[in-house]
């Protein structure tokens, strides 16, 4: 991406006027539309209480004449000079900018893109600065930031020689005091209060659990956590790492067979779980699934906070019995952390399995530093923030959220219940959440059910989204709920412990788009011939990541790392590129869009296109469409790929003619994408198959359609 492109964006001259979108600037929360805070505070016209139709009318009218092909995606949020200097990166740039970038430095907004490039070219300088900003305490300091002398170490050796305990770093009063609030939470159904745990109280709890672990397990054991992301789960997570064990993260939505696979692959010796999961007013059995899936010792936490409501196996322990092992300890709240080299494994995570079997990915102590640093730089997590991201420790966002809060000194906000319901929204309001993370399916559900109506989300200063491609209209709705705050898009992978493309509060933001490669992340976009496009040119292709990527995986437990990520990838500037498998677009104006997995691309009449691109258009072809999925299949007698659109309607009772929909889709695709793409089949379904982390499984829809076609009589 050319510096000039980004510079123009940042400077605002490519935006629709310095006041921009009428929604921006309200709430006085410290940002504005190109002006100073003082000018913009309270200056917004649109309010969260206005119906979505009004927000739509204004947004789509303001940008009605915007030619995206010439100007790129329309930006809806613009950083002000005053706001920019109050961000983490802005502060760093004001302090170091001139020294590092020389006379090229002007201000955080205009110089952001240059600094991102600088961070790729000089990782040792960038990381030296960022390490100082996080709550990190090394027992042995690293010899250097990056050692590339050993050619056999793909991507180099980061922070060689460093010894630390990353869990201890999360618990130290470095970025905040012992009395500051570390975690706030609320149980589902309890609207009365928001519970708080101070940093000191958290540390005491973690140390007590660490002592109890030593009484039950052998050093170095892998210990699984399969429970909702509650305060207790976070305490257990930190305790396992503090005491020198390895966490095996298992999402609480998995069936017994999935639990069994994860326990087997990771060789876990024990598992922390709950009797039930309380969600949406229901008690969903969890312990019974764990018992079916694993013979290893289970420690069972009561979901109700009172007694257990299940009968345990002989070898299993109730949470209370587990903790009672420390009663005889003279100092149960004291614990000496187990210090380990930087590359020691602390957590085994599993990818979502969108492209096949989930990969078992070991995280070293570098990975948490990477997570926290990226959230610090891109989501601007600060010690004054209260961060909520409904997820699970079994998904990459769980550990990312924990480290992003505790290594930056922010407060972690946890809701013990379903994030789909009003109770969650009320918690966000009552807890004063300032940073809210989401996934697109959650946003779609909130918008569709209207369950947040009347709640006040204006304390939120930054929103964030990850997991799947966002829908522009859903994001318009989300941003408007918080008084037009920026939605920072993040796209990466479990194996990277981070994202490779992001939004950033030093740049104008456009709905459903990313504004920059991650700090210190380099990549090229490859043509079909495997050749990199020039980095200032709009293009679409598979992303090839640079090898030197701090915190990314070097090993898989259940697959050959080299085969999965490196084999067959081209060399760029003498450097072996790393596969990520995404097709991305660099737009005019230097934004990025994700077009989905390389496996989901199709060839329609000789033209390559992605599912996501077609879905974006089809989603808006009729008001009663909740979502669409586009796949292509070949007929049993071969021939060209046929386009199939699957549809989930909003109103399931409405009687839909596939023929009418086919015409609507065809018309929309012809007008907005390519007149040559022909819709061959439309199928209306009640819901889409998804991974346990809610990602759309197009490969299952493809198989379903292939089966249907092969069952048809052959001519
Ligand atoms: N904001 C986003 N927009 C679009 N796609 C996203 C976004 N965030 C993540 N993704 C998709 O999710 C992928 C990362 O998810 P994850 O690490 O869980 O692995 P997976 O690719 O879903 O699973 P597997 O590697 O097992 O196939 C990204 O490569 C991208 O395809």
From TrEMBL:
It comes from Spirodela intermedia. Belongs to the ATP-dependent AMP-binding enzyme family. Residues 176-543 form the AMP-dependent synthetase/ligase domain. One of its GO terms (biological process) is phenylpropanoid metabolic process. The keyword Lipid biosynthesis does not apply. It catalyses: (E)-4-coumarate + ATP + CoA = (E)-4-coumaroyl-CoA + AMP + diphosphate. This is 4-coumarate--CoA ligase. InterPro entries: ACAS_N (IPR032387), AMP-bd_C (IPR025110), AMP-bd_C_sf (IPR045851), AMP-binding_CS (IPR020845), AMP-dep_synth/lig_dom (IPR000873), ANL_N_sf (IPR042099). One of its GO terms (molecular function) is trans-cinnamate-CoA ligase activity. Keywords: Membrane, Transmembrane, Transmembrane helix. The keyword ATP-binding does not apply. It comes from the Eukaryota. Residues 117-170 form the Acetyl-coenzyme A synthetase N-terminal domain. Residues 1-36 are annotated as: Disordered. The chain crosses the membrane at residues 234-255. Residues 613-695 form the AMP-binding enzyme C-terminal domain. Its EC number is 6.2.1.12. PROSITE patterns: AMP_BINDING.
């Amino acid at each position: 991406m050319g510096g000039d492109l980004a510079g123009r964006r940042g400077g605002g001259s490519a935006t629709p006027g310095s006041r921009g979108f009428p929604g921006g600037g309200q709430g006085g929360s410290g940002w504005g539309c190109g002006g100073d805070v003082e000018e913009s505070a309270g200056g917004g016209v649109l309010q969260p209480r206005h119906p979505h139709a009004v927000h739509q009318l204004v947004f789509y009218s303001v940008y009605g004449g915007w030619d995206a092909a010439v100007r790129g995606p329309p930006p809806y949020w613009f950083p002000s000079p005053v706001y920019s200097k109050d961000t983490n990166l802005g502060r760093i740039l004001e302090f170091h900018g001139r020294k590092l970038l020389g006379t090229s430095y002007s201000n955080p907004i205009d110089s952001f893109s240059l600094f991102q490039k600088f961070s790729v070219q000089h990782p040792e300088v960038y990381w030296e600065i960022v390490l100082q900003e996080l709550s990190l305490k090394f027992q042995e300091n690293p010899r250097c930031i990056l050692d590339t002398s050993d050619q056999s170490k793909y991507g180099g050796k980061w922070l060689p020689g460093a010894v630390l305990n990353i869990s201890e770093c999360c618990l130290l009063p470095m970025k905040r005091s012992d009395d500051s609030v570390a975690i706030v939470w609320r149980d589902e159904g309890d609207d009365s209060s928001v519970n708080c745990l101070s940093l000191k109280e958290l540390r005491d709890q973690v140390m007590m659990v660490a002592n109890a672990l030593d009484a039950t397990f052998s050093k170095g054991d892998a210990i699984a956590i399969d429970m909702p992301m509650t305060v207790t789960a976070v305490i257990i997570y930190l305790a396992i790492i503090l005491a020198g064990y390895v966490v095996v993260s298992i999402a609480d939505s998995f069936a017994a067979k999935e639990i069994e696979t994860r326990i087997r692959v990771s060789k876990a010796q024990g598992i922390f779980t709950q009797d039930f999961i309380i969600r949406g007013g229901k008690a969903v059995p969890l312990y019974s699934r764990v018992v079916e899936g694993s013979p290893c010792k289970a420690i069972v936490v009561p979901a109700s906070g009172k007694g257990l409501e299940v009968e345990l196996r002989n070898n299993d322990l109730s949470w209370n019995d587990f903790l009672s092992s420390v009663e005889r300890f003279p100092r149960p709240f004291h614990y000496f952390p187990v210090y380990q080299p930087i590359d020691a494994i602390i957590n085994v995570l599993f990818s979502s399995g969108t492209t096949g079997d989930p990969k078992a990915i070991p995280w070293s102590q570098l990975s948490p530093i990477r997570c926290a640093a990226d959230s610090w730089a891109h989501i601007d997590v600060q010690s004054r923030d209260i961060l909520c991201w409904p997820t699970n420790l079994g998904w990459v966002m769980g550990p990312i959220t924990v480290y992003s809060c505790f290594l930056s000194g922010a407060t972690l906000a946890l809701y013990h219940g379903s994030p789909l319901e009003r109770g969650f929204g009320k918690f966000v309001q009552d807890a004063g959440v300032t940073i809210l993370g989401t996934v697109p399916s959650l946003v779609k559900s909130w918008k569709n059910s209207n369950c947040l109506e009347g709640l006040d989300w204006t304390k939120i200063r930054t929103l964030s989204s990850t997991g799947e491609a966002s829908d522009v209209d859903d994001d318009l709705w989300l941003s408007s709920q918080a008084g037009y705050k920026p939605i920072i898009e993040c796209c990466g992978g479990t194996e990277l412990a981070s994202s490779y493309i992001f939004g950033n509060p030093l740049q104008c933001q456009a709905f459903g788009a990313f504004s920059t490669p991650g700090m210190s992340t380099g990549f090229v976009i490859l043509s079909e011939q495997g050749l990199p496009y020039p980095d200032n040119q709009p293009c679409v292709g598979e992303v090839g990541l640079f090898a030197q990527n701090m915190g990314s995986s070097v090993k898989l437990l259940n697959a050959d790392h080299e085969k999965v990520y490196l084999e067959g990838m081209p060399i760029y500037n003498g450097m072996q590129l790393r596969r990520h498998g995404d097709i991305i677009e660099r737009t005019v104006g230097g934004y990025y869009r994700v077009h989905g997995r390389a496996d989901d691309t199709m060839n329609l009449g000789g033209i390559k296109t992605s599912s996501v691109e077609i879905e974006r258009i089809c989603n808006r072809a009729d008001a009663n469409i909740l979502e669409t999925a586009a796949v292509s299949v070949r007929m049993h007698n071969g021939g060209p790929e046929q386009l199939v659109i699957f549809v989930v309607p909003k109103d399931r009772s409405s009687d839909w003619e596939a023929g009418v929909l086919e015409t609507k889709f065809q018309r929309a695709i012809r007008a907005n994408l390519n007149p040559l793409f022909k819709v061959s089949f439309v199928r209306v379904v009640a819901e889409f198959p998804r991974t346990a982390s809610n990602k759309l499984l197009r490969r299952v829809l493809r198989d379903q359609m292939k089966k249907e076609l092969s069952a048809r009589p052959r001519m």
